[in-house]
Write a structure and sequence with these properties.
Belongs to the short-chain dehydrogenases/reductases (SDR) family. By secondary structure, the chain is α/β, with parallel strands linked by helices. It has a single domain (about 10-190, about 220-240), classed as NAD(P)-binding Rossmann-like Domain (Rossmann fold), CATH 3.40.50.720. The protein contains eight helices and seven strands, in the order βαβαβαβαβαβαααβ. It has helices spanning about 20-30, 45-50, 70-85, 105-135, 155-175, 195-200, 205-210, 220-235; strands spanning about 10-15, 35-40, 60-65, 90, 140-145, 180-190, 245. α2 links the parallel β2 and β3 (about 60-65). α3 (about 70-85) packs parallel to α4 (about 105-135) and α4 packs parallel to α5 (about 155-175). The longest helix is centred in the middle third of the chain and has 28 residues, at about 105-135. It binds nicotinamide-adenine-dinucleotide.
Length: about 250
């Protein structure tokens, strides 16, 4: 068991949505803690660019993965096994949003949001979970949201539906794999001021609402989410499964 600052030493961790605002911070933290990171996102080139900024880039690998494609999951899990011989953690981080309300949302956007955030998370668990089990056990971190639990600002209905499913699938899978030592937990960020999010919303009414609903009075930072991922991915959390961990500045406590 490795705990402490080097706690991910030589663990193989597969991450989806690696080049996004939070994903890139997770990549940096996992690499700093000694993991071999399998960076995946829609475009391999963005993953490779990010990988090239890491110390010892040769320890990591970059692959294209659309999480809504079962075939691509099969390919990525097979490539991970042939490159590293094992997988110790999966971080199901990729998702897309939609701010539409229940009466505004369109069927096509609903299907896209559910296809990536909900179905993509299930496919990741389905295909990577057995390899984690064969590797001696490990951890699955499903990136959820406060909107997987509470109504938020009363919009983003498709996103809330996807994240609600992520929350309950997490508990279901945790029970299935409990004796196999594959732990499954959901991580629920509040509003995180990543560059893409700020670019879209800074100064808007929505930005003011995000701040007003957060008791700590500020948005979170990507590295504050990455720190919780590192805890959940490694051996500091070996008795934590089926849990929902909030990093939301107090949003759900209010
Ligand atoms: N930023 C926030 O405030 C916030 C709050 C709560 C939860 N989250 C969750 O954190 C996670 C990361 O969010 P973020 O803010 O970094 O978002 P982001 O939009 O910056 O990044 C998302 C990444 O997912 C990738 N992606 C989109 N569709 C994909 C697909 N079909 N297959 C594979 N990858 C795909 C994108 O290319 C992008 O790199 C998401 O699950 C999100 O729901 C974010």
């Amino acid at each position: 068991m490795t705990v402490g600052p080097d706690r991910l030493r030589d663990k193989v961790v597969l991450l989806t949505g690696a080049t996004g605002g939070i994903g890139a911070e997770i990549v940096r933290r996992l690499a700093e803690e000694g993991a071999h990171v399998v960076l995946t996102d829609l475009e391999k080139s963005g993953c490779q660019d990010l990988l090239d900024t890491l110390t010892q880039p040769e320890r990591h690998t970059a692959l294209a993965l659309d999480v809504s494609s079962e075939e691509q999951w099969e390919d990525v899990v097979a490539a991970t096994e042939s490159t590293f011989g094992a997988l110790h953690a999966l971080v199901n981080n990729a998702a897309i949003g939609s701010v539409a309300t229940v009466d505004e949302e369109t069927r096509s956007q609903w299907d896209r949001v559910i296809g990536v955030g909900q179905t993509g998370t299930w496919l990741g668990m389905k295909h990577a979970g057995p390899l984690i089990e064969r590797s001696g056990g490990g951890s699955i971190v499903n990136m959820c949201s406060i909107l997987g639990t509470v109504g938020g600002l009363g919009n983003s209905v498709a996103y809330a539906a996807a994240k609600g499913a992520v929350r309950t699938m997490t508990k279901n899978a945790a029970l299935h794999w409990a004796k196999a030592r594959v732990r499954v937990n959901s991580l629920h960020p509040g509003f995180i001021g990543t560059p893409p999010l700020l670019e879209r919303w800074e100064g808007s009414e929505r930005h003011r609402e995000m701040l007003a609903g957060t008791p700590m009075g500020r948005l979170g930072r990507g590295e504050e989410i990455a720190a919780v991922v590192a805890f959940l991915a490694g051996d500091d959390s070996t008795f934590v499964t089926g849990s929902e961990i909030y990093a939301d500045g107090g949003w759900t406590a209010a």
